Amino acid sequence: MANATERSIRNISDTALWVAVYRARETERPDGLFRDPFARKLAGERGERIAREMLAAHRYEWPYVSRTVRFDQIIAERVKQGADLVINLAAGLDTRPYRMELPSSLKWVEVDLPAMIDYKEEILAGETPRCFLERVRLDLADVAGRRELFHRLGSSAKKALIVTEGLLVYLSRDEVIALGRDLAAQPGFADWAIDLCSPGLLKMLQKNLGALSEAGSPLKFGPEEGPEFFMSCGWKPVEVYSMIKTAAQIKRLPFFLRLIALLPESNGRQGSRPWGGVCRLTRM
Q1: Cα–Cα distance between 82 and 93 in angstroms, integer?
Q2: Which pick of 65, 72, 162, 189 has the fewest CB atoms within 10 Å?
Q3: Shortest CA distance to 221 belongs to which of 248, 200, 246, 202?
């Protein structure tokens, strides 16, 4: 089973297909917490195969649903509070500009690798986003290229929200710091929505999701400092949501984890504890 998964996941972009399956399944539930009518088509047969073959895949569905719910909430609230620009870095197969209730005046920019954007545009051809949508084909490892992009976008934004859903865990500490500093250099970039894992959860994921390492996309980032890590690159955590607590609140937590969800936890250092969360950072 694990070997089959390793053959199915060829690179980091394939994880977008897998996660789209989880969004499709939640959409198809009678009590679905969000509706993504494009997820099933975007995931395609390969996404379904990856989800089926992933060892104990059902155990990993609840964090992705919880993560989507929390990012949706943060985005909706920031837009309500006057965000004039959303920049989704490594946007993958996200369809929020199409599925969320957004003002037509909002500008939304998706940044990802050319092949990912090409695939997405092919599948979504003929669909109309609810706000102004720009797509930028860029490898974020191109530091000069991303700085140029951030400067262009930041020069016209007054209250931008940066979104990096599912990205940071693939970067090293130094890469995260460099990205954070590049973002903080733009006065118009006000908020940054991220997801984060503890060293304990990172170790667990590295063991259970070894297919990602085999595909050349190892999981790297789980800072021992927790959300406070980002203060070193100019960002202060102002909202922190535990995934296990969120999943319990939205009734998506597996039965075998429900007792754990009742335990108290802090929003700081988690150490070996397998903790994951979604955070909103604000520029210092």
Answers
A1: 25
A2: 72
A3: 202
Q: What are phi and psi of 240, to 5 degrees?
A: -135, 125
Which of 190, 164, 268 has the alpha carbon at shortest distance from 224? Answer: 268
Let me know if residue 19 belongs to a domain. Answer: no
**What number of helices (H) and strands (E) belong to the chain?**
12, 7
Is 14 part of any domain? no
Structural domains counted in the chain: 1
Q: Count Cβ atoms within 10 A of the Cβ of residue 174 and give its class: 0-12 exposed, 13-18 middle, 19 or more buried.
A: exposed
Q: Report d(CA 183, CA 133) in Å as an integer.
A: 20
**Would you say 150 and 85 are in contact if contact means Cβ atoms under 8 Å apart?**
no
Please report whether residue 20 resides in a domain: no
On whether the CB atoms of residues 92 and 21 are closer than 8 A, the answer is: no
Task: Express each pLDDT in 40-53 by its tens digit.
Answer: 999 998 888 887 77
CATH of the domain at 148: 3.40.50.150
In a domain, 35, yes or no: no
144/156 Cα distance (integer angstroms): 19
Q: For 176-230, what is each residue's pLDDT tens digit?
A: 999 999 999 999 999 999 999 999 999 988 887 766 766 677 899 999 999 999 9
Q: Structural domain of residue 83, as residue ranges?
A: 58-283
